[in-house]
């Protein structure tokens, strides 16, 4: 039997959730071959380069830039978050992490380093800005978390 | 959370990081590992069950979820499966993110990952990466007789 399929980018939404597991595998691989420090070093390097525009916005516009980023991110992944944002502090809570949920759905084991996709990433985003980051709580099984960004004391 | 829509950037940065740690050999070692782990339950299993049609089934889902601009052709009688990527969503994103410097050999991972799965199962893979500067490529999988 022969078949032909033609698809244009506009025919579908860009959301290939299996990529979450590819990242999950990558984190475990780094730990196995180069140690835990390499996992953090890699994620920090990624955040410093990829999220450089977000860090710039955070410096210029403050926490509202981060709020917009987080809301966009979770909406894209069909996740829900509660965000409370003031001038000097942003706090957000998620009932689950959509990435962790999908990895579980694939019946794969979530890497113990997956927490660093929150902690290391947001710490790096805050570097060089007037804000600091705290991972208040995190459940590795679901990715349920409470996270806050706050203005550093001068 | 790193969104799956941002993963390609994380992937490209991972290749750069690995190269810094252990050269090209470290990057290829990771691709070999990823191929075995990541594609064993998907592409490999589908081809084991459905033959060349397994390629069609695998890429039908993944390329649709990646919102790729592509033409896919399957001729089971002739034993040929072909993907013509008119615009790769991954490479396209890397080119669009002007503040990022993509891993120079980024596109090669596709060839390594898929070839490693398909060739031991009796299929020949031919990839053409001559158009990757414009996010174009092609892959032809032929059943060996």
Topology:
The complex is a heterodimer of chains A (154) and B (145).
Chain A lengths: L1 E6 L11 H16 L1 H15 L1 H10 L1 H14 L4 E5 L3 E6 L3 H8 L13 H8 L4 E8 L6 E7 L3
Antiparallel strand pairs in A: 2-3, 3-5, 4-5
Helix pairs in contact in A: 1-2, 2-6, 3-4
Chain B lengths: L6 H44 L2 H13 L3 E7 L4 E8 L1 H8 L11 H11 L4 E6 L8 E7 L2
Antiparallel strand pairs in B: 1-2, 2-4, 3-4
What tags apply to this protein structure?
heterodimer; A: 154 residues; alpha+beta; Muramoyl-pentapeptide Carboxypeptidase, domain 2; 46% helix; 21% strand; globular; B: 145 residues; 4 helices
Give a structural overview.
- The complex is a heterodimer of chains A (154) and B (145).
- By secondary structure, chain A is α+β, with helices and mostly antiparallel strands.
- Chain A has a single domain (16-151), classed as 2-Layer Sandwich (Muramoyl-pentapeptide Carboxypeptidase, domain 2), CATH 3.30.1380.
- Helices cover 46% and strands 21% of the residues of chain A.
- Chain A contains six helices and five strands, in the order βααααββααββ.
- In chain A, a hairpin with a 6-residue loop joins strand 4 and strand 5 (145-151).
- In chain A, helix 1 (19-34) packs across helix 2 (36-50).
- The longest helix of chain A is centred in the N-terminal third of the chain and has 16 residues, at 19-34.
- Chain A is globular.
- The model of chain A has no long low-confidence stretch (mean pLDDT 97).
- Chain B is an alpha+beta fold.
- Chain B is 52% helix and 19% strand.
- Chain B has four helices and four strands, in the order H-H-E-E-H-H-E-E.
- Chain B has helices spanning 7-50, 53-65, 89-96, 108-118; strands at 69-75, 80-87, 123-128, 137-143.
- A four-stranded antiparallel sheet of chain B has the order 1-2-4-3.
- In chain B, helix 1 runs antiparallel to helix 2 (53-65).
- The model of chain B has no long low-confidence stretch (mean pLDDT 96).
- At the A-B interface, strand 1, helix 1, helix 2, helix 4 and helix 5 of A face helix 1, helix 2 and strand 1 of B.
């Amino acid at each position: 039997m022969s078949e032909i399929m033609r698809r244009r980018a506009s025919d579908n939404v860009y959301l290939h959730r299996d990529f979450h597991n590819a990242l999950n595998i990558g984190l475990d691989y780094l730990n196995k071959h180069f140690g835990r420090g390499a996992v953090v070093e890699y994620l920090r390097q990624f955040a410093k380069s990829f999220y450089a525009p977000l860090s710039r916005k955070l410096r210029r516009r403050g926490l509202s830039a981060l709020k917009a980023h987080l809301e966009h991110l979770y909406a894209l992944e069909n996740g829900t978050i509660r965000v409370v944002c003031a001038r000097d502090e942003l706090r957000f809570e998620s009932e689950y992490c959509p990435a962790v949920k999908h990895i579980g759905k694939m019946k794969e084991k979530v890497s113990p380093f997956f927490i660093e996709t929150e902690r290391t990433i947001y710490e790096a985003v805050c570097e060089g800005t007037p804000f600091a980051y705290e991972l208040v709580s995190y459940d590795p099984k679901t990715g349920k978390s409470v996270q806050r960004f706050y203005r550093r004391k001068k | 959370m790193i969104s799956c829509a941002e993963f390609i950037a994380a992937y490209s940065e991972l290749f750069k990081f690995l190269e810094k740690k252990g050269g090209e050999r470290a990057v290829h070692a990771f691709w070999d590992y990823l191929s075995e782990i990541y594609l064993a339950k998907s592409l490999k299993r589908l081809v084991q069950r459905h033959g060349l049609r397994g390629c069609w089934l695998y890429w039908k889902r993944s390329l649709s979820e990646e919102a790729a601009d592509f033409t896919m052709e399957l001729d089971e009688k002739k034993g040929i499966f072909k993907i013509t990527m008119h615009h790769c969503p991954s490479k396209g994103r890397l080119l669009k993110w002007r503040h990022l410097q993509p891993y120079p050999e980024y596109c090669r991972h596709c060839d390594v990952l898929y070839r490693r799965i398909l060739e031991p199962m009796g299929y020949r893979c031919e990839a053409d990466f001559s158009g990757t500067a414009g996010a174009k490529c092609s892959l032809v999988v032929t059943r060996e007789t």
